[in-house]
Amino acid sequence: MKIIKELNNISIIKFIEMNYDEKLASTLNIISWQDGDGFLDTCNEDFGIDRKQMSLFKEKNKHKKFQTKSDLLKMLNEYIQIKSFSSKKGKYKLGFNIYIYGSKTFV
């Protein structure tokens, strides 16, 4: 299996659109750069974190399974749009890495 590195946000979306079958099962895993304990409390010092980011933050470190390419792309786009978890005023940020696993190997 070959690991594909150095894809930017646009190229990862295009790669999935071109290479994944619509019915290809896949798993999305978001891993934060740190465990995130205390991050939400710290953000309260800077007016908290918005609701959309809060719901995505709660999904990190879970393996989210998708049965279709379009569902995977929809969730992936939400994480790409926020770039990192951050407090409302932007004083505190918590980065993350995106991992996608599928049943198809790309060479």
Keywords:
two-stranded antiparallel ribbon, alpha+beta, 107 residues, 4 helices, 3-stranded antiparallel sheet, 21% strand
Please explain how this structure is put together.
The protein is an alpha+beta fold and 107 residues long. It is 36% helix and 21% strand. The protein is built from four helices and five strands, in the order H-E-H-H-E-H-E-E-E. The protein has helices at 9-19, 39-43, 51-59, 69-82, and strands at 26-32, 63-66, 85-86, 93-94, 96-102. Strands 2-1-5 form a three-stranded antiparallel β-sheet, with helices on one face. It has a two-stranded antiparallel ribbon with strand order 3-4. Strand 3 (85-86) and strand 4 form a beta hairpin. The model has no long low-confidence stretch (mean pLDDT 86).
